[in-house]
Amino acid sequence: MGKLYVIGIGPGGLEHMSIRAKEAIEESDIVVGYTRYIEFVKPLLEGKRVFSTGMMGEEDRCKEALKLCKEGTVSVISTGDSGIYGMAGLILELRDDEEVEVIPGITASSAAGSIVGAPLMHDSCNISLSDLMTPYELIKKRVQLAAEGDFVISLYNPRSKGRADYLRENLAVIRKYRNGDTPVALVKNALRDGQEVTIATLDTFDCTKADMLSIVIIGNSQSYIKDGYFVTPRGYKL
Amino acid sequence: MGKLYVIGIGPGGLEHMSIRAKEAIEESDIVVGYTRYIEFVKPLLEGKRVFSTGMMGEEDRCKEALKLCKEGTVSVISTGDSGIYGMAGLILELRDDEEVEVIPGITASSAAGSIVGAPLMHDSCNISLSDLMTPYELIKKRVQLAAEGDFVISLYNPRSKGRADYLRENLAVIRKYRNGDTPVALVKNALRDGQEVTIATLDTFDCTKADMLSIVIIGNSQSYIKDGYFVTPRGYKL
């Protein structure tokens, strides 16, 4: 039986993948992933079998990967970190006796943060606004508690056609606890082709720009913009 | 004037560094970092000038790096992600007109999570228990709100000699909101030499094992242990 790697490839551009992740893909006989993300690692796929499915096909992909590793070494890829809204959880939930190794990657909030400056320098949280598998009331409760705790907040899956208003509603919740001039960054396609960056404030942010390929980062009460960089101070007395 | 890279080298083992981070260090004339972390990238340092200081020397290192980039290309390195409790914030706070590029890395909670399974699969937060620059009351408030919101919680800097009781006190706060059988993982030296892993529960966890080189991850109400893996389900109906 082959080994099953669950790999976070990072933001998408090959150069932000870890050396270990690249080597594990190279070592694999079979690569499994969402069709769109398979494209990101195309230069590594020569001579390999590929199993890909569309969005929402996560469970099928995982089951297939667990079957395929009886035939050779398999890499299941996620963008970002495989353990943060990626495929690692589902693989381990479905795993029977297969040998699994999780290889971490740079998660989307780290990638987006690096592009706009250093917004995540203090206590922070990741919240997904997707309500496919989480009740919307719980999502809103988490946003409210994170706002109350003055966490820097990274919103994953901030907006889709089916829930066009969630982002606006949740920013309004945060606005109750933060000033209107709190920095808000939107990064679409962080560190890969098609990257777009917007830095605004809670009062000026245009929610309609966000989509499922975006990350939205909201600063804490100390965050500020300096020369175009979004900075959250760690607390040094300078 | 040279360029200034602020680089997250990931957990420490060279193979978990991004390809971009490695190339930026190779391209640099001068490398600046905490003495202990400079050791992690030693194979990349041949022929380069190195400026390192001990712990607490962050401000000196940043000021020196900003000076040195007038003489050549400089890399300032942090472990993990440079933008998460790393050097990116301080560099941008102190920056005048130097050209700065932040290069992200795999943060410690991602690294630790990958080792124990997939604990970070749902909404999560990073909280540092260090009160050097954050009032302890604010830290405890954040832990309490994160517990109330059923976030997976990653504790950075969980324990030092000067604050031996903080970890125990904060786990007791979390215990008010979670069952005693909630999984708790301690990973010391994640993905580098000296790695040690303990998986326990809120009721059985031994706080005295934690130190400044450790990350402690506390599951949410749905997290469980399966075949030795710490899994937080994403919510798929399997």
UniProtKB/TrEMBL annotation, chains A, B:
Pathway info: Cofactor biosynthesis; adenosylcobalamin biosynthesis
Coiled coil, from the record: none
Keyword Methyltransferase: yes
Domain Tetrapyrrole methylase positions: 3-204
Superkingdom field: Bacteria
Matches recorded under CDD domains: Precorrin_3B_C17_MT (cd11646)
Gene3D superfamilies reported in the protein's UniProt record: Cobalt-precorrin-4 Transmethylase, Domain 1 (3.40.1010.10), Methyltransferase, Cobalt-precorrin-4 Transmethylase, Domain 2 (3.30.950.10)
UniProt keyword Transferase present: yes
GO molecular function: methyltransferase activity
UniProt keywords, alphabetically: Cobalamin biosynthesis, Methyltransferase, S-adenosyl-L-methionine, Transferase
Pfam families: TP_methylase (PF00590)
InterPro entries, alphabetized: 4pyrrol_Mease (IPR000878), 4pyrrol_Methylase_sf (IPR035996), 4pyrrole_Mease_sub1 (IPR014777), 4pyrrole_Mease_sub2 (IPR014776), Cbl_synth_CobJ/CibH_dom (IPR006363), Precorrin_MeTrfase (IPR051810)
UniProt GO BP: cobalamin biosynthetic process; methylation
PANTHER family attached to this UniProt entry: COBALT-FACTOR III C(17)-METHYLTRANSFERASE-RELATED (PTHR47036)
Protein name: Precorrin-3B C(17)-methyltransferase
